[in-house]
Structure formats: structure tokens, C-alpha cells
Design brief:
- The structure is a single chain.
- It contains 17 helices and 4 strands.
- By secondary structure, it is mainly α.
- The strands form 2 sheets. Strands 1-2 form a two-stranded antiparallel sheet. A two-stranded antiparallel sheet has the order 3-4.
- The protein starts with a strand and ends in a 5-residue tail after the last helix.
- Residues 2-10 have low confidence and may be disordered.
Length: 458
């Protein structure tokens, strides 16, 4: 246990290293859901093999993501208020974690070419998405009780980095040992899939659901065992009223803090664009290049490695140049990457023809495929610094005596409109039958985010 002097007659005691490390493992436990399900394996598999065609698959996935995001946006202020005011976190994490486990496990039913399972499959995906996001809300609410305020950013960043590593390892596990090419019957490592998983029925893709559920149960357990929870401060009804009152006070005071209000609005918009870009990048690649799970998964590993180096370099630049400049630079890189991606087709780059990839050739043999990977690395390298520097800028803008409350408001603005990007992508893709048109909407998110950020005084 660590005792921190507060400058008054009292001091606050924080738990030891084991409690903090166990809390960090929540990110390790939850990240495979985003890596395997929403980005690199199951979502592209759904669009390419379960739905009738990639465009309709992207639209359906977008609508399901939007529905889950809308539920999260409507309920997260209430649940966040309960988390702040009630004191208890673990029962809520367990309850919403159970939704993640149930929904993810049910995604095994998504066999290829069977449209009858699509409604149940999308419902399972929405349930799991709501579960993982709300479990994260209550897990984040534990941060102020684990470390002093001046170490919250470091704790958050360490958890983020740990989650990245967990996502990479889960992806390597799936690609190397479970998911095989339907034609060769071999995994990325040239092996026969473990447990007799049938490549023809894409069992290696579908197993990511149950694997995500099992991974979460195993690696979230240390948090329940070693990270202390605290007795309820007040009954749920009283906690709800108190929490909503404090949230209302914070929102009412925002117009008086113009830079903070502009930053939170900018963060809300560009975070929505970034989340949508990550969510649909794999689906877009599957539709554009016809990539299978091994290619998309390998692409994901490359992006995650680029993101790790980007986050490290972004931290250095943050100290040297300030967080606002790092955010601005990251947004410019993302805007450049998405604009160029929209000009990349299987046989052209920037509208100039190139040799298409050779059927059954080596990984990423086509020039357009290699260009997409380079652009993806730019996105991965810019995404980490964007999010990390956003936390740093919040710390510089927020009143020092209310930093925890503003971290909660920061998390709220990052989620409250999370359904808009997927909804727009889904609607535009459905209306135009074009994945490219759906993805083009992201340009507006980054342009508007940049415009608002320019008016923030750091």
C-alpha cells in the first residue's frame, strides 16, 4: 500500500502493485474482442462469407454497430454516474462481462452462406459490444482509487499498451494455429488447424467468438481476485441521483470553459471517425482486395506493431512539442491516409493503373495491396498518439482539483456519438452499394475535428 500526502491533515492510501497490475490486465482481457471480432477477423469474415456480398455485409455490420453504439450513448451517462457515486465496480463489471461472454460465444453460429443466422448473429454482436463497453466504463471508474491523480495518465497508457500486446498475441494465435486458408487447409504457420477446425466452414474464423469469451474470463480473473473494490457509498437510487446531479453541474459549467468545451467536442468527433476507421478498415480491405482471414490478420499484426512504435514516438513528441500539436499532426496523417485509400483499387493507385495481385500468389504481392499496407501503417502509427495526446491535453485543460470528474466527461464524449459514424457508413453504403462511398464520410469527421481543435487554447 502507498500513502500519498494530500497537503491537508489527511492522506489517501492506494493499493499495492499487484492490485494495479491486475487492473491493467482488464485491457489485456478485453482487447481481443476489438482485435478479433470488430476489426480483423470476424467482421471481414461476416461481410465476405455470411452476407450476400461485401457491400451489404458492411451495411448490416454498420447498422448493428450503430444500434449498440446508440444504446451505449443513451445509458453510459447514467451508468457512469452510478460508478462515480456508488463506489462499487466489480458487480457491474461481472454483469456486463457476462453479456460479452454470452454474445461472443454465440457468434460461433455464423456459418458461411447461411443468411438465416444473420439476425441472431448481429444481435449477439450487439449484446457483446454493449457488454464490453459498459464493463470498460466501470473498470475505468476504478482508476482514481488505484493511483494518485498525477499518475492516472501513465496508468491508462500502460493499460492501453498492454491491451495492444494482448490483441497481437490473440491474433497470432488465431492466424498461426486456428484459422486456415480454405483452399490449402493450412494456417499462416503452415499447420493443420488445431482441434480439427474445418477450413471449408470457416471454423477458424468463427472460433474467434468463443475464444474471445474464454480469453476474457481467464485474464479478467486477477482483477476480481487482487484489485480491491470498495463498499457502496450509498444505495443505488441515491447514487444515481447524486451522480446525475454532479454530471449536470459539470455540463452546465462547460460553456464558461470555452477551450475545454471545444476540445471535448473535437474529441467526440475525431474519436468517432477513428473508431469507425478501425472498425471498417478490415471489411473495406476484404471487399476491395478479396483478402482472406490470414491476409487481413497479418495486416492487423503489422498495424498493431506500427501503432506500438507510433505511441512511443508520440509520447516523445508530446513532451517536446505539446499535446495539441501531436493531435493536429496525427489528424493530418489520418486525413491524408483515408483520402489516398479512397483512390486505391485492386488494379490502381491514385487513379493510375498498376499490376493486379497474382491469384494464389504470395502475401501482398500486388502493388495496390502494398500501398494499402503502407497507408494502414500510417493510420496505426497516428491512432495511438492521437488518443494518448488527447488524454494529456485534457489534463492540461482541466481544473486540477476535478481531474477525475473531467476524465469521466472525456470518456463520455468519446462514446456518446459512437453510433453516428457506423450508422452513416452503413446508410451510405446501403444507398450507393459502394464501400468506397461509405468510407468517404470519414473525411468529414477528421476535417471537422481539426477545425474545432484549431480553436482550442492549450
Amino acid at each position: 500500500m502507498t500513502t500519498i500526502e494530500t497537503g491537508t491533515d489527511s492522506a489517501k492510501t492506494y493499493p499495492g502493485r499487484a492490485a494495479v497490475v491486475s487492473w491493467i490486465f482488464f485491457d489485456w482481457a478485453a482487447q481481443p474482442y476489438f482485435t478479433l471480432i470488430t476489426t480483423f477477423v470476424f467482421a471481414p469474415y461476416f461481410a465476405g462469407f455470411v452476407a450476400s456480398d461485401p457491400a451489404s455485409g458492411q451495411a448490416l455490420w454498420g447498422f448493428a454497430t450503430a444500434a449498440a453504439g446508440l444504446a451505449i450513448a443513451l445509458l453510459s451517462p447514467v451508468l457512469g454516474a452510478i460508478a462515480d457515486a456508488s463506489g462499487r465496480r466489480k458487480p457491474w463489471i461481472a454483469g456486463f462481462g457476462a453479456l460479452l461472454v454470452i454474445g461472443a460465444s454465440a457468434m460461433w453460429i455464423g456459418k458461411p452462406g447461411n443468411p438465416d443466422v444473420i439476425p441472431a448473429l448481429l444481435l449477439a454482436y450487439a449484446i457483446a459490444s454493449v457488454g464490453v463497453e459498459f464493463a470498460t466504463v466501470f473498470n475505468n471508474a476504478m482508476m482514481p482509487t488505484l493511483v494518485p491523480p498525477d499518475k492516472i495518465g501513465r496508468l491508462s497508457g500502460t493499460g492501453w499498451a498492454t491491451g495492444y500486446v494482448g490483441g497481437i498475441l490473440s491474433l497470432v494465435l488465431v492466424l498461426g494455429f486456428l484459422a486456415a486458408n480454405a483452399e490449402t487447409g493450412r494456417t499462416l504457420f503452415g499447420l493443420t488447424p488445431l482441434f480439427g477446425l474445418d477450413p471449408v466452414t470457416h471454423a477458424g474464423d468463427r472460433i474467434t467468438g468463443p475464444l474471445t469469451a474464454l480469453w476474457f474470463v481467464v485474464f479478467v480473473t486477477p482483477m476480481f481476485l487482487f484489485t480491491p473494490d470498495y463498499p457502496a457509498k450509498r444505495p443505488i437510487r441515491d447514487a444515481l441521483g447524486e451522480g446525475l446531479r454532479e454530471l449536470r453541474e459539470s455540463l452546465v459549467s462547460l460553456p464558461k470553459q470555452k477551450s475545454m468545451a471545444r476540445f471535448l467536442l473535437a474529441n467526440m468527433i475525431y474519436t468517432d471517425g477513428l473508431v469507425s476507421l478501425f472498425a471498417f478498415g478490415g471489411i473495406y480491405a476484404a471487399g476491395t482486395f478479396g483478402w482472406d482471414t490470414i491476409r487481413i490478420g497479418t495486416f492487423g499484426i503489422i498495424l498493431a506493431i506500427a501503432g506500438t512504435f507510433g505511441a512511443w514516438l508520440g509520447g516523445k513528441l508530446d513532451d517536446a512539442l505539446g499535446p495539441k500539436r501531436v493531435i493536429t499532426g496525427s489528424l493530418v496523417i489520418l486525413l491524408f491516409a483515408i483520402v489516398v485509400i479512397l483512390t486505391v483499387n485492386k488494379d490502381s493507385i491514385l487513379f493510375m493503373p498498376v499490376a493486379p495481385p497474382v491469384p494464389d500468389g504470395p502475401l501482398f504481392a500486388g502493388a495496390a495491396e502494398r500501398a494499402y499496407i503502407v497507408l494502414g501503417c500510417l493510420i496505426g502509427a497516428a491512432g495511438g498518439p492521437l488518443q494518448a495526446a488527447s488524454r494529456t491535453l485534457l489534463i492540461r485543460l482541466a481544473p486540477k482539483d476535478r481531474i477525475a470528474q473531467y476524465f469521466g466527461l472525456f470518456a463520455l464524449t468519446g462514446k456518446v456519438t459512437s453510433f453516428i459514424g457506423p450508422l452513416l457508413i452503413g446508410a451510405i453504403t446501403a444507398a450507393t452499394a459502394s464501400q468506397k462511398a461509405g468510407m468517404a464520410v470519414l473525411v468529414g469527421f477528421f476535417v471537422l475535428g481539426l477545425a474545432l481543435l484549431a480553436r482550442v487554447r492549450a
